[in-house]
Structure to design on (246 residues):
């Protein structure tokens, strides 16, 4: 049977979460890197109402969203391999990470990078696509950029707002690690909570094991702010999870 196809943006931390989870759980898949804008048309072709990436296309189903993809994968993983995706506390923490960390890390980054240094963002979107798609992206970039700025509600004030929200969540994550636990959910193995926190925060610290750590760069103000966060327990946890499990 053909491997499932995972449609993704290389720049997306939600897509990184899905990729890492599938690989950790031992699920073979084919990565399909798509262009912004085209991902919506492809989603509609598969009967999806929204274009949000990632989505996984199997022989008999379409699973959209990194959280659902990981639960699908865990149900098919080998015995003894688990991320505790169906644990109630883990699911609640994962949702908080997705909606607070995931959304606002993206907005924080794009509010400076896309608004003021958009060529650095375009460069990352070009990774993994063919020559003709690079030309398409180059020609359509100003339109794509404007739609992203509008659709994601980006700008200087929005960046500050998202930075403050992320900082509150970092305090929460640091507090979980304050008792010396190795993993955020407790216990003796990595869970979906650790994987989610690590993948969604990875754009800040760019672990060398990250698939695009050599391509993504932080804009100057963001880089300065993140440098002050790098010694925080949760950021060290991110680096540790990547080093051990990615």
């Amino acid at each position: 049977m053909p491997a499932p196809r995972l449609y993704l943006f290389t720049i997306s931390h939600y897509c990184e979460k899905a990729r890492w989870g599938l690989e950790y759980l031992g699920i073979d898949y084919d990565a399909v890197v798509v262009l912004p804008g085209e991902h919506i048309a492809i989603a509609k072709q598969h009967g999806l109402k929204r274009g949000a990436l990632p989505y996984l296309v199997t022989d008999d189903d379409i699973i959209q969203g990194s959280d659902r993809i990981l639960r699908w994968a865990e149900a098919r993983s080998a015995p003894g391999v688990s991320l505790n995706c169906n644990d109630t506390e883990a699911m609640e923490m994962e949702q908080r990470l997705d909606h607070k960390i995931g959304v606002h890390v993206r907005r924080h980054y794009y509010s400076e990078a896309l608004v003021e240094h958009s060529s650095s963002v375009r460069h990352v979107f070009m990774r993994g696509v063919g020559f003709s798609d690079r030309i398409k992206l180059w020609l359509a970039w100003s339109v794509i950029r404007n739609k992203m700025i509008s659709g994601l509600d980006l700008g200087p004030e929005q960046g500050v707002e998202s930075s403050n929200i992320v900082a509150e969540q970092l305090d929460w994550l640091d507090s979980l690690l304050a008792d010396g636990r190795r993993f955020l959910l407790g216990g003796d193995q990595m869970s979906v909570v650790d994987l989610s926190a690590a993948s969604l925060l990875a754009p800040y610290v760019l672990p060398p094991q990250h698939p695009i750590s050599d391509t993504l760069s932080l804009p100057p103000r963001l880089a300065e702010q993140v440098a002050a966060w790098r010694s925080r327990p949760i950021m060290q946890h991110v680096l540790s999870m990547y080093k051990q499990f990615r």
